[in-house]
């Protein structure tokens, strides 16, 4: 019943931009904190960014600070990740996740997960 669907991934050249979207169904977004995670081949899943249920608190991995921006639109039940100045090391499958909490964390202790969307940064 509760589903998260990511979209917006694709192939982009270094220095380019992408905007990822995560649409939720089966529950209202205002009760949930959200996180974005990524996993590259041969590496563990890592936290990229998270946002509290109110949108008043955000956090970012050091590797993406100043380049990525997380936001949410509760009326549309959608969370976004704007990615600018992309680097080859950003290449990974990106996942959105939701937790029934006001707080957000950068560890993968979330209740619901999307299926992932591929982001490839290459020249």
Q: Explain this structure to me?
A:
With 123 residues, the chain is an all-beta fold. The protein is 0% helix and 48% strand. It contains no helices and eleven strands. Strands 2, 4, 5, 6, 9, 10 and 11 form a seven-stranded mixed sheet that branches. It has a four-stranded antiparallel sheet with strand order 1-3-8-7, with no helix packed on it. The termini are far apart.
Task: Break the fold down into its secondary structure elements and pairings.
Blueprint: E1 3-7, E2 10-12, E3 18-25, E4 33-39, E5 46-51, E6 58-60, E7 68-73, E8 78-83, E9 92-99, E10 112-113, E11 117-121
Parallel strand pairs: 2-11
Antiparallel strand pairs: 1-3, 3-8, 4-5, 4-9, 5-6, 7-8, 9-10, 9-11
Structure keywords:
123 residues; mainly beta
Can you summarize this structure?
This protein is mostly beta strands and 123 residues long.
């Amino acid at each position: 019943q509760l589903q998260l669907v990511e979209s917006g991934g694709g192939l982009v050249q270094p220095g380019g931009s992408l905007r990822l979207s995560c649409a939720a169904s089966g529950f209202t977004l205002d009760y949930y904190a959200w996180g974005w995670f990524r996993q590259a081949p041969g590496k563990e899943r890592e936290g990229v960014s998270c946002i509290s249920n109110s949108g008043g608190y955000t956090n970012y991995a050091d590797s993406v600070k100043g380049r990525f921006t997380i936001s949410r639109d509760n009326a549309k039940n959608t969370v976004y990740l704007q990615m600018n100045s992309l680097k080859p090391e950003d290449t990974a499958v990106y996942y959105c996740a939701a937790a029934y909490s006001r707080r957000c964390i950068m560890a993968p202790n979330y209740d619901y997960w999307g299926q992932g969307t591929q982001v490839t940064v290459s020249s």
